[in-house]
Amino acid sequence: MNPLVEFCISNLANGAQETYDILENDPDIDVLEYGCLSYCSLCDQNLYALVNGDIVEADTPEELTKKIYQYIEENPLF
After folding, report:
1. Is the pLDDT of residue 77 over 80?
2. Measured on CA atoms in the order 26, 28, 32, 37, is the torsion positive or negative?
3. What percentage of the chain reaches a pLDDT higher than 90?
4. Type and span of the H or E element at 52
5. What does pTM read for this prediction?
6. Beta carbons within 8 Å of 39's beta carbon, 6+ residues apart
């Protein structure tokens, strides 16, 4: 079972698309996008993704990518 990373389509448009593209090409991560994840106030202020149900947020796409990989490493599914 791979880690699951979920993105809001509005947050992708706000700058998280770069992170989405990187993770989408990683065969060890499952990536999904939704019309809305219901974190509108967070979405309006930062880039973020849900990683296995937990919020990971950052100011830049590069930082978001790094924090997602770090979260996955520190919180294995098994």
Report:
1. no
2. negative
3. 83
4. none
5. 0.93
6. 8, 48, 55
Those residues whose C-beta lies under 8 Å from the C-beta of residue 34, and which sit 6 or more positions away, are 6, 7, 8, 9
- Establish how many alpha carbons lie within 13 A of residue 37's alpha carbon, considering only the half-sphere containing its beta carbon: 24
Contact between 55 and 42 (Cβ < 8 Å) = yes
Q: What is the C-alpha separation between 43 and 75, in angstroms, rounded?
A: 23
User: For residue 65, how many other CB atoms are within 10 A of its CB?
Assistant: 21
Give how far Cα 10 sits from Cα of 13, 14, 41, 46, 74, Å.
5, 6, 12, 11, 28
Rounded to an integer, the average pLDDT of 57-78 is 94
| 41/70: higher pLDDT | 70
Q: Specify whether the CB–CB gap between 46 and 37 falls below 8 A.
A: no
